[in-house]
Amino acid sequence: MSTAATRTAGPEHLWSVDEHLEDILATVRPLEPIELQLLDAQGCVLVEDITVPVSLPPFDNSSMDGYAVRVTDVAGASEEFPAVLTVIGDVAAGQAGRLHVGPGQTARIMTGAPLPPGAEAVVPVEWTDGGLGGGPVTGMRARSQAPEAATGHVHVYRSAEARAHVRATGSDVKAGDRALDAGTILGPPQIALLAAIGRGTVRVRPRPRVVVMSTGSELVQPDEQLGHGQIYDSNSFALTAAARDAGAIAYRVGAVADDAETLRSAIEDQLVRADLMVTTGGVSVGAYDVVKEALSSVGDEDEEGAGIDFRKLAMQPGKPQGFGSIGPDHIPLLALPGNPVSSYVSFELFVRPAIRALMGLEDVHRPTVRATLTTDRALTSPKGRRQFLRGTYADGEVTPVGGAGSHLVAALALADALIVVPEDVESVEPGTEVQVVLLR
C-alpha cells in the first residue's frame, strides 16, 4: 500500500494538499531506463550525460555557395578592377576528392562543402560574375546548365578577409564537449544533435503508460445520442489529453457503468499496459459511487502492500481523492473526483507530478508566479480549505474566469492559470498579490 498505510490518521482526518502530494511522490518511482532508437526516444528523459565524440562541424566548410579563394588573390578587388581567377573545378558537399587552390586559382564551392587546401576564405557567388562574363550574378547555375562556369575564369568584384564565410571545425561543438546532460527531455532539437554527433540510440527512461478511465452509468460517448439524465463523458478525454501533454503515452478507456464487478474487471484488464492508472468519478459518498467498492479488492488483493486509500482533502474543488497501488506489480492508481473541474484540478496537482516523477524528472511541478488579482469584487474561500480558482494570467496580473462551481467546463476552457487561496484566507480583495499556478 502507499505510505498512507503507515499514517495514524483516522477516517475523518482531513489531509492537506501537501500531505497527499507528498504521499504520492514518496510512492511513485522513476521507470527503469531502456535503450531506444532516436525517434522512439522523443519525449523521453536522458539518464546519461552525452559527450561529443567528433567535432561539429568535423571539418572547415563553406557557409555560402561561392568560390574558395586565397585572400591575397582578391585583395583590392572591385567592380571596376575585379580579380580574375582560374577556376580549377567544383567542391561539392560530400565530395571525396579534394582540390588544392594555388596562387591565382579558385574552386567553385557549395554550402557545406569542405574548404579545399590552399583556400583561406569563400566569396559568395553574388560577388562574382559566376564565370559567365556578364557582370555580377544573383546565384550559382547548376553545372548541368552551365558547365562552362566550372572551368575557365571568374571575375571577383570584392575582397574577402581570412576565414570569411567559413564554418570552422568545432565551431558548433568540439569533441569531448558535453552535448546533453542527464535529465534532459528529448525534443526535436536534442534528437537532431544526437543524430549529428552519430548517436543512433540513447539510454532513457521511457514515457509512462497512463490508462485513464471514467466511471458513471450516466456517461455517454461524444457523437452518441443523449438519453434522459445522461451527459457526455468529457473527463476521460480531458485527462487523457492532459496526460499526453505531461509527457505520457496515454490510453483512454470508455466510460464504465456504476457496477463494482464490471469496473473491477475493466481495471484488471488494463493493468498489463499501465505504469499508472487514473480513474475519475465514484470516489464520493453516494450510494452509486462504486470505485471504493471495486478497488477494495482489484488485482491481487493478497499481494503485500497493495491497496487503495480513500481520503478527504482540505481543498476546493477536489475534496474526495483516492491513492494507492494495485495488482502484483503495484501499479500506482489515483482515483479522482468526477466533477469536471475537480477532476482536472486534481490532475494538475497530483497526477501530473506523478507522471513527471515516473519520467525521472527532478522538477515535477508546474511553474508558479506571484500576480496581482484583478477583479471587480473580493474572492471568498471556505475556511480551512485551499481553494484553486480558474484564471487568466498576463503581464503580472491574474483575472478569475467563471465561478467556483466544479462543473463549469466552459470557464475551465478559458483558463490558463489556477489562483491559489490559502487555507487560512477567507477573502481576497482586488489588487492583492496571489500565488498563481501557470497551466500553459
**Percent helix:** 10-25%
Q: Low-confidence segments, ≥5 residues, pLDDT <50?
A: 1-8
Biggest sheet strand line-up? 1-19-21-22-18-14-17
Rg measurement, Å: 32 Å
Q: What is the makeup of the main sheet?
A: 7 strands, mixed
How many distinct beta strands?
A: 29
N-end to C-end Cα span: 33 Å
Structure classification? alpha/beta
Mean pLDDT: 89
How large is the count of helical segments? 8
Indicate the overall shape: elongated
Description of the structure:
41% of the residues are buried. A hairpin with a 2-residue loop joins strand 25 (386-394) and strand 26 (397-400). The protein contains 8 helices and 29 strands. Helix 1 packs parallel to helix 7 (340-358) and helix 4 runs parallel beside helix 7. Mean pLDDT is 89; it is low at 1-8. It is of the alpha/beta class and 440 residues long. The strands form 8 sheets. The protein has a 7-stranded mixed beta sheet with strand order 1-19-21-22-18-14-17, sandwiched between helices. It has a 5-stranded mixed beta sheet with strand order 9-6-8-7-10.
